[in-house]
Amino acid sequence: MIDRARVLDNFYVPARYPNGHPEGPPFEHFGPRQGREAIEHAGAILEFARSQMA
User: Fold this and answer.
1) b/e sequence 35-54, b meaning 16+ C-beta within 10 Å
2) To the nearest whole percent, how much of the chain has pLDDT over 90?
3) What range does the domain containing 30 cover?
4) Alpha-carbon gap, residue 50 to 54, rounded angstroms
5) How far from 3 is each of 7, 21, 33, CA to CA, in Å?
6) Where would you tag: which of 11, 24, 45, 48 has the fewest CB atoms within 10 A of its CB?
7) More confident residue, 38 or 11
8) Distance in angstroms (rounded) separating the CA atoms of residues 54 and 47
9) Secondary structure letter of residue 54 according to DSSP
10) How confident is the model over 29-42, as a mean pLDDT?
11) How far is it, in rounded angstroms, from Cα 13 to Cα 11?
């Protein structure tokens, strides 16, 4: 889970703020592949958290 969270951490600031990248807006740096990967990692983290609360 830690590795999945680290991957998601890389997306947070750069994707949230228009000046998060030294050059260009966020949409120029992230594509469908990165989006799918982020959703997969987030889903796994949520599933793990839910299993720990049950």
Assistant:
1) eeebeebeeeeeeeeeeeee
2) 52
3) 2-53
4) 6
5) 6, 22, 18
6) 24
7) 38
8) 11
9) -
10) 91
11) 6
What would the DSSP string read from start to end of 1-41? -HHHHHHHHHHHHHHHSTTSSSSS-GGGT--HHHHHHHHHH
pLDDT at 16: 74
Angle at the Cα of 45 from the Cα atoms of 34 and 12, rounded to 5 degrees: 45
- C-alpha distances (whole Å) from 40 to each of 21, 22, 30, 37 are 24, 27, 15, 5
Question: Is residue 54's pLDDT more than 90?
Answer: no
* Nearest-angstrom CA–CA distance, 46 and 11: 17
- State how many domains the chain has: 1
